[in-house]
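Hi P.,

Sorry for the delay on this. The queue was packed all week, but I finally got your sequence through. Input first:
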Amino acid sequence: MLAIFVTMQRTALITGGNRGLGLETARQLAARDWRVILGSRDPAKARGLVPGADVRAIDLGDAASIAALASVLVGEGITLDALVNNAAISMRGFDTHVAERTLAVNLLGTLQVTAALTPRVADGGTIVMVSSGMGELSALRPPARGRVERAASLAEARALAAEFVAGVRAGKHEAAGWPSSAYSVSKALLNAATRVLARELAGRRIRVNAVCPGWVRTDLGGPRAPRDVGEGAASIVATVLEPRATGGFFRDGQPIGW
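Then the structure:
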């Protein structure tokens, strides 16, 4: 008797998928025969970049855009095996506006995307938060460091973000242990949220991990970065493919400290 094996193609949605790490991650997953969905603020810029890829509009700073994408996935019956939260911003300078905008996109927008799309992630699937070594706890000082390390809910992570912005506005953030880097704070709090979500989604066997792709030569990383985009994306892909761990922080497929 002839045995017939059917392999179901896995699907990944990648935010910020029209350039840099997001685009290269999509290309590497597509090369592994994944179906990829490129999320982009400007879908016209993403079309045709990865043969066979779907392109969907999403803006982490626009709640209506996030809700619309979730609705589209429901309407089309699309189930995700992986959600890669890659989109992020890094702004020049440091003031209240920079702090507020950076946290709004990198943390709050990412959490809103995750909340909207997690119902479309299959049980046993994975959610990957693209973080940074700049978000390691060593970037913070007491008492902020301890509070971030102990954060036990998403509400607490959001509250810490609001406190950081308020501290910047009042010129008192450093006294509270926060660095003068909104990007570092956004990634430290994203790491805290990763640990919370890993616990919350354990019942559905959804693995939630953070990944540091390293300092990569992209529009965000700049031309002096030591790693090329292929190396950085490979670190993300390795975390997507991580079969067991949840609530971890990875670089190049290896766990690293928070």
